[in-house]
Design goal:
InterPro entries: Dimeric_a/b-barrel, Dyp_perox_C, Dyp_perox_N, Dyp_peroxidase, EfeB/EfeN, TAT_signal, TAT_signal_bac_arc. Helices cover about 20% and strands about 20% of the residues. The protein has about 425 residues and is α+β, with helices and mostly antiparallel strands. It has one domain. Bound molecules: the ligand C=CC1=C(C)c2cc3[nH]c(cc4nc(cc5[nH]c(cc1n2)c(C)c5CCC(=O)O)C(CCC(=O)O)=C4C)c(C)c3C=C and fe (ii) ion.
Length: about 425
């Protein structure tokens, strides 16, 4: 593990985003100081980290990366990047800088000392100044093409490529667009404030200048927790509760079984990491809006308002897949999304999806909206892949959706203070 403290850091001093405003004399007692001007006050300020003072910080350091089992925040900003440098050293330096910047931003700080030199661009882009940490998490992943692209071992990492980290197969009905597919690296930022998530990604991408460029970028949202004080299961844009059946993130054994890569699964560098599948799924919402409630409920196999399995009363009641109605027909149809996704129930995935909307489809004049489907798992070949193969063949939901984007990333293991994200892969 590399000791970053021994190296010259680009982030010499931590400045809390709220501290910047305080130091600038904006609001409260500080307003009295405001008249003396930003530069002068900053020179006197002793701005420190907000860590420990705020209850909306998700720790960045740990055995696993945050943003996987973290309770989903209100907003998502996810980008895939193409690496443009040929130098492994550049890549390592980038991950070191990303680690340090991420630790700062997730604890509510700006990246780098607040600049007072008017002749230089500010180190931090500034749009999160004054904003709380907002439970920001930043999760990094690497795609198959980081290892080998067009047959070329780009960074001498070929022998470290896990057998599970290969392009996803083409599934029936896939209508993928190149511009929404794949990528060498991934940054998933989630926060209860979109501006905080955007700020994080923007500053990380800015640091990658000359080393990597954006391949695709996508925002996502759920109802905000402000709008839903009860914090019940959020609804997707088809109006159904989405996320009811998921592994218990408080159960170590459930996570070991389904989410975290274990020793012996593949190369050791990924132990404590997880595979992330991202699918950009467009919904034909106008078609959906013209279908009857019965049809909609048969599509998922659940009641719309309660979220209960068909034939049951409450959202978390267990489904009866054998039950038949008075005519002898299955209550939960053979093609119901829930039934097909579950299969024999032996392999689960951790779903952490967000809705998206992106203006309109200029060809049809309808809204371009859908689901940024994201799931985490220990082994895609026995989890997401067979599940999606079943869904693509038999799911009634296919009448209303189309998969437009797809990517698979290995989310790196977590990191302790003094180390950097990716160290197990690169060192
Ligand atoms: C391959 C995996 C899955 C894709 C792709 C997928 C797309 C997708 N799902 C919904 C809405 C719902 N999904 C629900 C349940 C559910 N979905 C998957 C997997 C994929 N979904 C699983 C494993 C499950 C749980 C199955 C079970 O064991 O019961 C539900 C029901 C409520 C819930 O449990 O969350 C909804 C609603 C959409 C709209 C969508 C693509 C746009
Ligand atoms: Fe689903």
């Amino acid at each position: 593990m590399t000791d970053l403290s021994k190296e010259t850091s680009i982030f010499e001093k931590k400045v809390s985003r709220r501290g910047v405003l305080k130091a600038a004399g904006i609001g409260g007692v500080g307003a009295v100081l405001g008249a003396s001007g930003l530069g002068g006050v900053l020179a006197l300020s002793d701005a420190t980290v907000t860590k420990g003072q705020s209850n909306d910080i998700v720790p960045f350091y740990g055995a696993n990366q945050a943003g996987i089992t973290t309770s989903p925040q209100d907003n998502l900003y996810i980008v895939s990047l193409e690496v443009t440098t040929d130098s492994k050293q550049d890549l390592i330096q980038l991950f070191k800088e990303w680690t340090e910047a991420s630790a700062l931003m997730t604890s509510g700080n700006t990246v780098g000392d607040t600049s007072t030199n008017g002749n230089l661009p500010p180190k931090d882009t500034g749009e999160a100044v004054g904003l709380s940490p907002s439970n920001l998490t930043i999760t990094f992943g690497v795609g198959p093409s980081l290892f080998v692209k067009d047959g070329k071992d780009r960074f001498g990492l070929r022998s470290k490529q896990p057998a599970e980290l290969v392009d996803l197969p083409k599934f029936p009905l896939d209508a993928l667009k190149k511009e929404w597919t794949g990528g060498d690296l991934c940054i998933q930022a989630c926060a209860d404030d979109l501006q905080v998530a955007f700020h994080a990604v923007r500053n990380l991408v800015r640091m990658a200048r000359g080393k990597a460029v954006i391949h695709w970028a996508q925002t996502g949202f759920q109802r905000t927790k402000n709008a839903d004080a009860q914090k019940v299961t959020p609804r997707n844009l088809l109006g159904f509760k989405d996320g009811t059946v998921n592994p218990d993130v408080t159960s170590k054994s459930a996570l070991q079984k389904s989410v975290w890569v274990q020793k012996g699964d593949g190369p050791d560098w990924l132990v404590g990491g997880s595979y992330m599948v991202v699918r950009r799924i467009q919904m034909y919402i106008e078609v959906w809006d013209r279908s009857t409630l019965n049809d909609q409920e048969a599509t998922f196999g659940r009641h719309r308002d309660s979220g209960a399995p068909l034939g049951k009363q409450n959202e978390f009641d267990s489904a009866d897949f054998e039950a038949v109605d008075e005519t002898g027909r299955l209550v939960i149809p053979e093609t119901a999304h829930m039934r097909v996704a579950r299969g024999d129930g032996k392999h689960s995935i951790l779903r952490r999806s967000y809705s998206y909307t992106d203006g309109m489809d200029t060809k049809t004049g309808s809204l371009d909206a859908g689901l940024v489907f994201i799931c985490f798992q220990r082994r895609p070949s026995t989890q997401f892949i067979p599940m999606q193969q079943r869904l693509a063949k038999n799911d009634k939901l296919n009448e209303y959706i189309v998969h437009r984007g797809s990517a698979l990333f290995a989310c790196l293991p977590g990191v302790q203070k003094g180390g950097y994200i990716g160290e197990t892969l690169f060192d």
